[in-house]
C-alpha cells in the first residue's frame, strides 16, 4: 500500500525481491486523495451480523490492497473450514470470538499473535473461556470450541489491547458482560462505543477519570 501511494504522488522507486530503492531529489506531485475505509475496523461491525444484528458497512474500497479485506470471505467460511491468519493477524481476535459463537473455529498462522499489543492468542483464550468456550493453542494453530456460550461470570480483561476490547464487546452485544480498561480502543477507533450505541445497541461506558472523581 505504501508503494502504491508513493507512485500515485509521483515518486519513482525500484523494487527487486526484498529490496526497495528510492532515488533521491524527487518531489511529490500534489493531487486530491480518497481515504478509503479501514477493513480491519469494519470487520468488528460486520461481525455483528453473525450475532443476530442487521448491520451494513459502507465506505470500503473493493479494490483495496488491505490484507484485512479477506475478512468478508472469512465471515462466510468460519466454522466450516480452516482459516489462515498469516497475512491478516489483526483479524484474529474477532475471528476467535466468532468461532466461539459458531461453535467451532480452526486458525493457522497464529505464531505472530504473541508479538502484537498483547499475546492475542492467550489473551482471547483467557477471555473466551469466561463465555464457556474452550481454546486450544498450538505452535502455529489455534482451535476454538463451544457448545453454547453464556454471559461471563466475571469481569473481562482488555489486556491493554484495542482489538481485544472490540472483539469482546461484539460478543457482549449478545451475551452481556463487563470489560475493564476499555480505553485501549483509543489507539485505533476512539468512537467505537459511540458507533455501537448509534446502531441501537446498549453500551455503558465508564472512564477511569469518572471513577477517580
Structural description of this entry:
The chain has helices at residues 2-8, 39-47, 71-77, 92-102, 120-128, 162-175, 192-198, 208-212, and strands at 14-16, 19-21, 83-84, 104-108, 134-137, 141-145. The protein is an alpha+beta fold. It has two domains: 1-33, no CATH class; 39-212, Alpha-beta prism (UDP-n-acetylglucosamine1-carboxyvinyl-transferase, Chain). A hairpin with a 2-residue loop joins strand 1 and strand 2. Helix 4 (92-102) runs parallel beside helix 6 (162-175).
Question: Layout of helices and strands, plus pairs?
Answer:
Layout: H1 2-8, E1 14-16, E2 19-21, H2 39-47, H3 71-77, E3 83-84, H4 92-102, E4 104-108, H5 120-128, E5 134-137, E6 141-145, H6 162-175, H7 192-198, H8 208-212
Parallel strand pairs: 3-4
Antiparallel strand pairs: 1-2, 4-6, 5-6
At CATH level 2, the architecture of the largest domain is Alpha-beta prism
Query: Mean of the pLDDT scores?
Result: 93
CATH topology of the largest domain: the name is UDP-n-acetylglucosamine1-carboxyvinyl-transferase, Chain
Strand content: 5-15%
Strand order, largest beta sheet: 3-4-6-5
Q: What is the CATH C-level name of the largest domain? A: Alpha Beta
Helix/strand-derived class? alpha+beta
CATH superfamily of the largest domain: Enolpyruvate transferase domain
Number of strands: 6
Amino acid at each position: 500500500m505504501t508503494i502504491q501511494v508513493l507512485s500515485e504522488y509521483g515518486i519513482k522507486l525500484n523494487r527487486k525481491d526484498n529490496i526497495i530503492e528510492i532515488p533521491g531529489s524527487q518531489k511529490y506531485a500534489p493531487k486530491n486523495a480518497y481515504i478509503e475505509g479501514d477493513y480491519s475496523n469494519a470487520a468488528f461491525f460486520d461481525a455483528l451480523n453473525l450475532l443476530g444484528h442487521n448491520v451494513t458497512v459502507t465506505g470500503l474500497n473493493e479494490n483495496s490492497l488491505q490484507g484485512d479485506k479477506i475478512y468478508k470471505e472469512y465471515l462466510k467460511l468460519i466454522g466450516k473450514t480452516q482459516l489462515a491468519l498469516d497475512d491478516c493477524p489483526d483479524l484474529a481476535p474477532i475471528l476467535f470470538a466468532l468461532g466461539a459463537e459458531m461453535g467451532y473455529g480452526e486458525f493457522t498462522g497464529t505464531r505472530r499473535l504473541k508479538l502484537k499489543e498483547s499475546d492475542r492468542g492467550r489473551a482471547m483464550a483467557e477471555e473466551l473461556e469466561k463465555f464457556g468456550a474452550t481454546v486450544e493453542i498450538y505452535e502455529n494453530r489455534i482451535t476454538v470450541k463451544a457448545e453454547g456460550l453464556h454471559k461471563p461470570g466475571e469481569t473481562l480483561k482488555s489486556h491493554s489491547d484495542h482489538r481485544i476490547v472490540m472483539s469482546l464487546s461484539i460478543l457482549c452485544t449478545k451475551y452481556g458482560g463487563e470489560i475493564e480498561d476499555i480505553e485501549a480502543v483509543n489507539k485505533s477507533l476512539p468512537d467505537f462505543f459511540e458507533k455501537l450505541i448509534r446502531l441501537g445497541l446498549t453500551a455503558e461506558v465508564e472512564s477511569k477519570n469518572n471513577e477517580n472523581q
